[in-house]
Structures are given as C-alpha cells and as structure tokens.
Design goal:
alpha+beta, two-stranded antiparallel sheet, two-stranded antiparallel ribbon, 5 helices
Amino acid sequence: SMVLRDYLVAGERTQRMTILKSVLTHFIEQLKGNRIGLIVFSEQPYTLAPLTADYTLLKSLVRRLEPAVLTGRTTNVSKALLYTLRQLQHADMNNPRQKPVLVLITDVNRTYRNLDPRAIAAFLHTQGYRLHTIGIGASSDAAQERNSRGLIYQPANFALLKAIAQRGG
C-alpha cells in the first residue's frame, strides 16, 4: 500500500513511501540529542536500526527504504507494536525510569481480528510508554488514482489511529 499515490506534491501524484521518508527524515533532524530506533513492518516487523544517535546512518537507512524490502502485502500494526515492546524490554536502557516515546507511522486501514492494536497500545501505556500515531495516506476514496497498479485502494483509517493513540496515552 505504500506504493499508492494518493498525495499531490507540486501537482504530481506522489507515493505514500515518499511522504513517509520525508516525515521520518524530519523527525530525525528535529530529535537530535536523542537516541532513535527504527522498526519497519508490513506483515512482519523487523529492526531497521536499534536505538542510536547516529543521525547520518538513520537518514541513510530511511533514504534506502523501499516497499519491496518489507515483509508482505498487508499491514499488521499489532505485530509491530508487540515486536516493539519486546525490543524495548530487551534493550539496555541507561535510565529505566525514563521510557522512550513511541511514534507509529502507518497507513493502517483495518485491524487483525486476533490482535487488536488498541488493546496493545493500552498495555504499552500501562507499562509506562507513550504512543503517538501519524497516518500516511488519504482519508477517503476520493484520492484514489484511476490506475492503482492492480492494488486495491484503501484509505487510511484515522479514527483507528486516533483510538490507538488515545489508548497509548
């Protein structure tokens, strides 16, 4: 879904992945002085970069990120949140009283029936984490490109992302 082009930039249709890279690069530039980790996901999550203050490395990894290197054709936010929790539990944190802030950037449009990301977000919050969400993609079918390259167009579900953020504190 990250190859869908439902953004207009300078009058041209632009892929969600391009917008995602821009958002991530902006975060990295704005959060200097903090350690940042990147976990990417589609069907399965994986660590692209563990917590680091090497901003040059982080921006290089973001530039090289492509939908083809991800792990499937669907988005499983629940697995990504659980994976993130496991990584944080195993990380060597210098100050265990100060938990990292989590930012979920996704074009999620529906939840998996077996794992509700709202419940996982609530659990993260009880463990002392704060979860923010950023939606990538249009909020309605009106932004659909006529030729979606064989993909079924699904707008981002901002109501779901808001609920995840609320439960995540």
